[in-house]
Amino acid sequence: MSATARERPLTPAGRRVLDVAAALFYERGIGQVGMELIAAEAGVTKKTVYDRFGSKEALILAYLRTRDERWRAFLNERLAAADDPRDRILATFDAIGEWLRTNGSRGCSMVNACAEVPDPGHPVHLTAAEQKAWLRGLYVELATEAGYDDPASLADRLIVLHEGAVVMFSVGRMAHATDTARDTADLLLR
Questions:
Q1: Per the database entry, where does the chain bind DNA (predicted)?
Q2: Which of 26, 86, 132, 147 lies 20 to 30 Å (CA to CA) from residue 155?
Q3: What's the pLDDT at 8?
């Protein structure tokens, strides 16, 4: 998406398009959803979709960024509720469990999009990599605040637990995956 398109506030029709596209992309996959379907479901013309977003790729990136913004806000609310730095680390696992139960039956939207777009240089992969780097950075920050000796190494372990829990919840159908990851993180933090 161009910087101009990203900076422009969404019109009500543009918001509807993005909301519809987000639901369809997440539930059906980005390759299974065409612009015609998005336009029809949003109650707009295909021209309106292209006028606002420019291309399907730009709409996909807007979807991924918007979903990531929602996740970050959700996670930050849960982190703000935990006082102890160690508890803040564990709160990330509580948050991902809650998120998956309410917003994520198909797992991570970033991983799902990358699975559909094989080119590692594609903007979808770059967007996903930015999101994962942010999460790893958050774990480094939390581990540093909690006073652990090697925050970067601990962050690597925590993000692997986090991402593994997401996969096992959605693909492995392990309803308690995030609880297991939290318990494992708790052991790691002792």
A1: 34-53
A2: 26
A3: 66
Contacts of 163 (CB under 8 A, 6+ apart): 108, 111, 132
Confidence of residue 1 (pLDDT cuts 50, 70, 90): very low
Is the CB of residue 76 less than 8 Å from the CB of residue 47?
Answer: no
- pLDDT for 177 equals 96
* Architecture per CATH, 66-189: Orthogonal Bundle (1.10)
CA dist., res. 151 & res. 145, Å (int): 9
pLDDT of 36 > 90? The answer is yes
- The residue written with tokens 């960024």 in the block is 65
Looking at residue 9, what is its pLDDT?
81
pLDDT at residue 2, as a whole number: 43
Distance, C-alpha 33 to centroid of its chain? 19
Q: Which CATH number fits domain 3-59: 3.40.190.170, 2.10.50.10, 3.40.640.10, 1.10.10.60?
A: 1.10.10.60
